[in-house]
Amino acid sequence: MKKCCMLSLTWTVLAASLWAAEKPHDNPPPGMKLTDWQVSHMPPPLEKRREQVKPVAEGVFRTRPTFNACGTAFGLSTEPKSAALEYRRVGDSAWTAAPSPVWFYETKDLRGSILRLEEDTAYEARVSVDGQVRATSAFRTWKSEVPVAKTIELDPAIVTYPIRIQEKGSPEGWIRYTVKKGLNLGGKSHMKGIIVVSGAEYVLLDDMVVEGGGGYGNVPVLIENAKGVRIRNCEFFGWGRVGPANFEQFEGGFGGGKFTDLSVSKPGKPPRLINYDCAMHVTRGASEVVIERCYAHDPRGRANSWFYSHPAGPEAVLMDFPDHSCVIRHCDFVGSDNHRWNDAVEGAGNFIADGGFNQDADVYGNFMIYCNDDNIELDGGQQNVRCFDNRFEAALCGVSIQGCCASPVYVFENLFSGMGEEFGYVGGSIKTSTFNPWWYHPYAYVQRNFFQEARDFSPNPGHEPRLDVKDNRFGEHPAQDVLAKYPVRPLDFVLDKGRIDGVVATVEGAVPAAVTVVAKSTGSADMPFTVRQNFDANWFKVEPAKGTIPAGGAVTLTVSFIADKMADRRDWRSAFLVRTPCGLSRCVSVVATRTDFELPVKPVPPGGKTLYADVSSDTGAFECTFDVKTAGRYWFFMRAQTEKGGAYTPKSMVSIDGSEPERMCNPLWGHPTWTMIRPGKKEKLSGVTKHFDLLPGQHTLRVTPNKGVRFVVSGAALTDAPEAFEPR
């Protein structure tokens, strides 16, 4: 195992003289050529943007605490030469420096965050401008335990769905809702909303199991126009919609392999594609919402892969323009290859100044895994939004901070490991595309993150963001001590492993060797536990499945594999949790490979609307002809492999029926897979599954690799059933 190297990068703030001459404004700078994306995402006028950001007035010093951080804003009409933010516990004499606040031209304010505070503690903060203290403020951080004035026990046998919660508690007396032990709200066939919290204050949803719930508009839990709502130690599964994949072109767009809701799609109209199917939906008017110690898994549907187009589908949480101060902490959002998330946490309003988490929010201590797009989107306002102590794994990208329309955003001390969506595509661990269009000048604090088997963080060429990036660590291989540490949680036991990989199964049924994981106490009390894993993680088992870790002692868990259940794909990926009664857990991801698995040479029976061509080429160049009998919409595929690693895209040209050769996007793997032929000008996935409307007759496919490019081709196909050719 290679030792991770420490890499310190210093990307300084853009020169003040440049921005003095070129302030953000409503129109692009003279001579700036806009991209297609910028043309389609023109910003609202300055005053509208100010309304979305809600800046503080001149001289006002606002502090918004959460459990262990505090967002600040100070109204300041002129750009300072220097500024400082400091804090101390009430009663202490010495002040401690927080990260320097950042001044924003459009909103005329200084914004910043104080990090790593203690819970339920009184503090003072002060802001200094050009060496002079300008304002002070006292605040108290939140406490984990809240006083409960009344408990309401819901009986699934008699409730009316959706359960509407509108009661108002108080900071001194919260209203707690729970469910009778051993019973679930909702049900396997329940497609309505389950809980709607609207107009409520200081409400606790505690220790519930929620099964079912429909898609967008009928989610399991909706929180709107509410203050002080906590969802604690709850489990969600079996929600969302299912439907067939849509590959068609229609008015206004393409299906792109996304799934279709047939119940609301109408003949002759564009299909209703499935997206935003979340377990928990936090939307407008919501503030001080906390989602903690929750386990979300096994939605009904799944997101499409980037193999087809930008993913759409289920997620655990949708942050949809809340007001401020929302926290997601110590949660397990565990997808799978049968039920991949789009994003584990998605933000609505990616390029709107009050979108996403909006203002003064925290995301920490979470395990987010098996996503086809991002583990989490912080996109939108990102005004004092902080993301730390999380473990992000197995997604195209880890944290998206693109479209950062307000800032500052803080991404620090997270673990990014084993990244990649279900078919192997890997993006940046921290996504910064569109980070700095001309109409805003965002700031990102990116420090002390671990990148293991993951791409590092870098801005897109030509962008000019303000970045404070340093002390991040990079390594090719996972280190178990780091994996076992993340996500960071207040638990009195540790595991000696955070991931099990290198497991190999074969078609002969050879059983992979069992692996042990040791759970060791670090506290003075016994710790009961239960092993939890997603329903479709039935290809391995963990024993004992429950028990108690004795104080000062240890328990050895044995993970054994069931080879005859590992039959229909090459890659097998899942996870299990060692979960305690309070909802806190330690997490282990599990990765295995059926090394002898190959996609069928002919995935669907020949004849009908699927045609095959016998092709053999060790250079990648080939030509073949298909005799089409029935007019229709078809997709071209080739069966190929490369000596390079997964999802490598060799540069090649393609011609259909003698057309002018075009560059094509055809990702290949190191083992034989079917890959879709995508003519296009870009060398990356364009977001469209490229189809061809063909008439009866002969149609010729010709592929020519660029100079110096070689790969092996062992077949070609023309089909109207592209799903059958997925590179599983």
Strand order of the largest sheet: 1-43-41-38-35-32-29-26-19-16-13
Q: Please tally the helical runs, counting DSSP H or I stretches of 4 or more residues.
A: 4
Radius of gyration: 27 Å
Helix proportion range: under 10%
Q: Which residues form runs of ≥5 with pLDDT under 50? A: 1-22, 682-686
Overall 3D form: globular
Ends apart, CA distance between termini = 28 Å
Structural class: mainly beta
Query: What's the pLDDT, averaged over the residues?
Result: 89
- Biggest sheet record: 11 strands, mixed
> What is the count of β-strands?
61
- Amount of beta strand: 35-45%
List keywords for this structure.
single chain; 728 residues; mainly beta; eleven-stranded mixed β-sheet; 4 helices; 61 strands; globular
Describe the structure.
This protein is mostly beta strands and 728 residues long. 3% of the residues lie in helices and 41% in strands. The strands form 12 sheets. The chain has an 11-stranded mixed β-sheet, with no helix packed on it. An 11-stranded parallel β-sheet has the order 10-12-15-18-25-28-31-34-37-40-42, with no helix packed on it. The longest helix is centred in the N-terminal third of the chain and has 8 residues, at 46-53. The two termini are 28 Å apart. Residues 1-22 and 682-686 have low confidence and may be disordered.
